Amino acid sequence: MPRKLAAIVDEFASAPRDVVLEMLLEFSDAVPPLPPELEGHEGMEQVPECQTPFFLKAEVTEQKTVRLYFQCPPEAPTTRAFAGILSEGLEGATADEVLAVPADLYQRMGLAQAISPLRVRGGTAILQRLKRQVSESQSLDNGDARD
């Protein structure tokens, strides 16, 4: 797991329950705005497991690092917080590091005790789709290299 993300996981796991909710709210503000070419969700994938409209796009750059884009309405702070955590924790990470993020990330953070199982399931779906996009992007790059 990338160092930045591991630090966030440890911070959440060791925080008291009432502080966890405050921390989530802080991360909901950490979602970078979409670049103009992605506004309107063009080229982004919706995560239907989320109760709120949530869209994401993951790209592997030529330097083999992952660039993430998220769109989620401000009135869904918990879901936006998942995006903020992933944005901050995976910034500059390689594709292999992203693919190594454990599927039970949010349980490791202790979020299962602080938010509803439905929200945790949505966050898990976000991570799962993100990792699938990274894997597919990496496969395309590897296929192009053989041509």
Walk me through what this model shows:
Strand 2 and strand 3 (66-71) form a beta hairpin. This protein has helices at 3-14, 17-28, 77-90, 95-99, 105-108, 117-146; strands at 45-46, 55-60, 66-71. The mean pLDDT is 90. A 3-stranded antiparallel sheet has the order 1-2-3. It is built from 6 helices and 3 strands. With 147 residues, it is mainly alpha-helical. The N and C termini lie far apart (32 Å). It has a single domain (3-146), classed as Sufe protein. Chain: A, CATH 3.90.1010.
Indicate the CATH class: Alpha Beta
Rg over CA atoms: 15 Å
Number of strands: 3
Proportion of beta-strand residues: 5-15%
Number of domains: 1
- CATH architectural group: Alpha-Beta Complex
String of helices and strands: HHEEEHHHH
Distance between the termini: 32 Å
Tell me about the biggest sheet? 3 strands, antiparallel
- CATH names the topology as Sufe protein. Chain: A
**What's the number of helices?**
6
> Helix proportion of residues, in percent?
40-55%
Query: What is the 3D form?
Result: globular
Mean pLDDT: 90
Give the low-confidence spans: none
Strand order of the largest sheet: 1-2-3
- Structural class by SSE content: mainly alpha
InterPro entries: Fe-S_metab-assoc_dom
Pfam family, one: SufE
Domain Fe-S metabolism associated: 11-133
Family: Belongs to the SufE family.
What is this structure's SSE topology?
Elements: H1 3-14, H2 17-28, E1 45-46, E2 55-60, E3 66-71, H3 77-90, H4 95-99, H5 105-108, H6 117-146
Antiparallel strand pairs: 1-2, 2-3
Helix pairs in contact: 1-3, 2-3, 3-6
